[in-house]
Write a structure and sequence with these properties.
This protein is mainly beta. It contains one helix and five strands, in the order E-E-E-E-H-E. The chain has a five-stranded antiparallel beta sheet with strand order 3-2-1-4-5, with no helix packed on it. The relative contact order is 0.30.
Length: 84
């Protein structure tokens, strides 16, 4: 799990069929001090996170593909939880 903050929405005019209807968010990872670190990543949203929400992002591609019900989906990252 990677702590991150939602910094935007990802929109695609063409996508893999398994991602149709999935909300995709741009998440910026955070270091131990809560500061932005590294490059942003796109993650599918399972919890209805909004802009500037702090979240946990999982990079478990097998679990992400389970959520979209397609073992051949290119998805890798998903929001695993929202941090209160």
């Amino acid at each position: 799990m990677i702590p991150a903050i939602v910094v935007g929405h990802a929109v695609s005019s063409h996508c893999h069929p398994s991602l149709k209807g999935c909300k995709m968010l741009l998440c910026q990872s955070l270091d131990a001090g809560g500061n932005p670190s590294g490059a942003p990543m796109v993650a599918i949203d399972l919890f209805g996170a909004g802009m500037h929400s702090k979240v946990f992002v999982s990079t478990d591609g097998v679990a992400a593909r389970h959520f979209v019900h397609d073992v051949k989906s290119p998805v890798r990252n998903f929001i695993q939880g929202v941090i209160d």
